[in-house]
Structures are given as C-alpha cells and as structure tokens.
Amino acid sequence: MKMETVSDKPVGVFDSGMGGLTVAHAIKQILPNEKIIYFGDTAHLPYGDKSKESIIHYSSEITRFLLQNNCKVVLMACNSASAVAFDEVNKELGQEVIILNVIDPVVKYLEKFYSHGKIGIIGTKATINSGTYGSRIKKVCPDLDVVSMAAPLFVPMIEEGFIFDDISNAIIRSYMSKPLLKDINALILGCTHYPIIKNQINKYFDFEVDIIDSAKIVALELKALLSEKKLLNQGVSVDYEFYVSDFTDNFEKIAQMFFEGSVNLHKSDLWR
Ligand code: DGL
User: Fold this and answer.
1) What is the pLDDT of residues 210-224, one digit of tens each?
2) Gap between the Cα atoms of 115 and 103, Å rounded
C-alpha cells in the first residue's frame, strides 16, 4: 500500500457559512486533484456582526479542527476572518500548518492590474470597519482612490436563498446606488458570499464596472503556493467533505450546486 505523503493531504477551507463554497468551487476547478475539507460555521453566522475576539476564537478553533483532520493548508475563505483574525491565528498556529487568507491575493492582483482610478470595496461590517483592505491596498497602490462600504444585508439575504428575486434586486439596487460608489472603475466583492450575486451586481452597473471576486484569484494563489512548496496532489482519488456547525436548509442545496451531485455533509460538534 502506498504511504500517504504531505501532498496527498486535503486542503482545509472555512467560512461562517456557504460563502467560502465560492472559493472551494474555484479550487475544485483550478486544482482538480486536491481533496478539500470544508467547514461552514453556520452556528455562528454571520461573522460580520461579531466582535474581533469572537471571530479570532472561532477561526482559531476551526483551524485546529482542520489541522486535526490532517489538512496541509488552511484557507480562511472568509473576508471577515481574514481581516480581523488572520494575524492572530497565523501567529498561534502558523508553525503547524500553512494558513492563507483571501485578502492578500486580491491586493496583489490590484497591484498588478490597477494603478489609478476609483475602486470600491463592499464587505461585512467586520471587514470594512477593520480597514484591512484599505490599508493594504494603499501600501501597494498609493494613487488609487479607494472607497469602502459595508453591505450587511447581503449575507443573510444569500443564506436565506434570496438571490434572483424582487427582494434581492431591491437590496442590491439600494446598496449599489449609494453616492459613495459613484464613478467606480472596479468593485471588490470583499465577502465570499457575494460572488453568488455577482451577475446581478454586474447587471446593476450595466457590465461597465469590473467586478473583482476573490474566488479564482485565491485559487490561483493557492496553486502557485502548493506548486512552489511541492505540495500539489498528484493523486486521482479526489474527495470532498463538508462540515457545518449547524444544519441550515440552504447549505446543502448550494453545496450540491457547486459540487454537483451528492454532498458528504456532516454536523460537527466542535462547539459542544
Ligand atoms: N463570507 C464571509 C466573508 O467573506 C462571512 C460573512 C459573514 O458571516 O458575515 O466575510
């Protein structure tokens, strides 16, 4: 029997709910040989309204869980966690496992493709109030005009399945028409839930604003990192496992949409 090597181990991905599935899906497409263990902390959703201390606590426990489940890398597929908990969790557990966030790859992308103009960022209250995007972008693109706005209704709206209807259209219109976002050249979807409504946001702007979603950018960054560290999985026995801390109606449905067919969903008792 072949011995398991580090590269055979799964990639751990977590979010407060289904948002990180947009990133996990991009990983599946860009890195089809990688096994994925996904954790949706549905019991604590939304993270965007929680304190920094709580988000650090949840993120640290979930990272430990993924580490115990043998993950070679842990990806915080959550902007709120990436914005307020990454440094702390990385300091605590970064010696034991490679930890990635979803903000740095997007900042790197901006540095490459946007030197001037007006960029909007939308995200949860935790992400926007942390100022993490703004300060990191300013360091590498000092001439960019960066504006940011919290859109706290989007996460519960998406988690509840309001995606293509009058309610979601009205909420999207209400946020996107804010004067702050006037004349933007690009809009960063600074929450991993938002790519689920990317088409509707694109439509609101008549497809004239670049809508930057982190899923593909992050998956490509992960590929580069795994390749650099010689950790790319060469095997073929792909396996996807999903854990939630509380069952919700829509999680399984959306997971099935992204991962086609039957989804191996477990309820984790991490918080007992
Ligand atoms: N999808 C997450 C993010 O990127 C979390 C949203 C929330 O739980 O508030 O911020």
Assistant:
1) 999 999 999 999 999
2) 18
Ligand 1 in contact with 78 (CB < 6 A)?
Answer: yes
Determine the straight-line distance between the first and last CA of the chain, rounded to whole angstroms.
37
- Contact 48 CB / ligand 1 (< 6 Å): yes
Contact 16 CB / ligand 1 (< 6 Å)? yes
Please say whether the beta carbons of 231 and 28 come within 8 A.
no
27: tokens are 């990983």
Q: What is the CATH number of domain 104-213?
A: 3.40.50.1860
- For residue range 131-171, what is the model confidence (pLDDT) as tens digits? 999 999 999 999 999 999 999 999 999 988 899 899 999 99
Catalytic residue, from 55, 74, 78, 226: name it.
Answer: 78
Out of 3.40.50.300, 3.30.300.130, 3.40.50.1860, 3.40.50.2300, which CATH number does the structure's domain 6-101+216-267 have?
Answer: 3.40.50.1860
Domain boundaries, the chain: 6-101+216-267, 104-213
